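INFO  loader      accepted 1 record
INFO  loader      residues=325
INFO  predictor   begin
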Amino acid sequence: MNKKINDIIGIGSPLIDFTIDVDDSVLSDLNLKKGQMHLIDENKSGEIFNKIKNYQINKTPGGSAANTLAGLAILGGNGVLFGKVGNDENAEFYIDETEKIGVKSRLRRHNSLTGHCITFITPDSERTFATHLGSALNFRKDDVDTDEIQSSRILHIEGYLLELPEIREAVIFAANSAKQNDVRISVDLADPGLILRIPDVIDDIVKNFADIVFVNEMEAMAFTNKEKEEALDIIYSHCDVAIVKLGDQGSLIKKDSKTCRISVCKTDVVNTNGAGDMYAAGILYGLAKNIPIERAGRIASYASSLVVSQVGARLSNKIYIDTIN
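INFO  predictor   done
INFO  writer      dumping tokens
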């Protein structure tokens, strides 16, 4: 058995995050449905950037799995990121920032633009995404380093990768490698629209591969047609650890047939971008370090509260878990 030297290995779409505060009228003008993730092409991206050119825009490295690994590093864990970037300045920026925060980059290059996600934050703190995947669309089986997977405790997969067949094939290849090498598999189901578009795929991944499943309330409803505890129980019937995030109502975690109710840490909400990814980082850190799940939930809740109290989706200062009650 390979020595487990990595806490978490993540597969995701490396995206540059452009975050902007807007009112609802901007979303209407751009024909973007509030609260959802929209895949856009290069032309639509150009239209959007032209519309927001006079707004203040914050540029950071992003992507769901990448944000989770960044959060893991902030908590003191170590992670590895798989994905595909382009041959442009944004790729250099992305790789530099990834390694600077303490995540090992196993990002491969492709002769195309690095993907980006324009995140619109409305006054109610809701997030709407316009995503041009760019080079991330070219992630393939050859980009999966099975040696790194074998040396990891948990493989974390962002659900967005399951939509396109070529990328899904690479993800399943990685998941099979994990199953063969005593590596637990974590899946974040990512988006209710995604679940409804490819229900059979999501069902297959959860039932046949996932050991750990993350959903928010809307994703839980899309996947199970149930809410809260009922949804949690259904998801748990397919995996070892089920997590349903309930926003300002906290979260529910089921492990070892016991349900934990995790309260939120009260804070002033600036925006919710990245909160779910940071929450996942706390839970996965706890599982990788064999911390009791209720304690991991409190770490996750505290860490995510720090994210929602700021503009960006990532934290920059280390979190010392011994200081968390």
